[in-house]
Amino acid sequence: MNTYDPQGTTTFDDQGNRMLEPQESDKVVRLRVARLRELGLLGLQRDEQLSGFAAKMTETFQAAVAVVNIFDATNQNFVGAHMQAGGDASSLTGMPKNVGWCPHTLARKKAFPLGNVMAYPRFAGNVLVDEMGAKSYLGAPLIDDTGTALGTVCVVDIVERDWNMSDVNAIKTFAKDVVQGIYHRQGRIALP
């Protein structure tokens, strides 16, 4: 069984070898994909309501980019995205499932603040660092009422950030609000 250290420092495979990215069991992936299908999220493209959540996140955190991210079997799908300063988020559509910081947030099933991604060699070599000059990340998992981690919400900035508990609590609230928004669309009762 794969093990993931909750501090996000070490991931091991079945033979005890250190891996750089979290690995999920086939069962976890199958359960998430089935749940995404039930909720009408599997195959969802850019969504106006979820992009609205992303816009609120960029405003709240004054961050360069915010994303609502759904994980299917092979990819992260940016179903909601917004960029500050009139940036065009239309090119932000997704990336492979094991790229970036969101896979770690999903595996941890808890908020993940990285105030300076360059301070962690494991996270410094990242496509987001190379392509957009990302310096900081703050994310939280989207966990539904069955305990399934469906995806993440996150903000990425091009400056180092000193994320505090207020920021962590705010990103967790955004994650809960997104899940409630998904339930509302389904005509379901929201989470408490």
From TrEMBL:
Which taxonomic lineage is given here?
Bacteria, Bacillati, Actinomycetota, Actinomycetes, Pseudonocardiales
Compositionally biased tracts (Polar residues): 1-14
Q: Could you identify this protein by its name?
A: GAF domain-containing protein
Question: What is the organism field in this record?
Answer: Saccharopolyspora elongata
Q: Which residues form the GAF domain?
A: 48-179
Region (Disordered), start-end ranges = 1-23
Query: Which PANTHER family does this one have?
Result: GAF DOMAIN-CONTAINING PROTEIN (PTHR43102:SF2), SLR1143 PROTEIN (PTHR43102)
- A Pfam match is GAF
InterPro entries hit by this protein: GAF, GAF-like_dom_sf
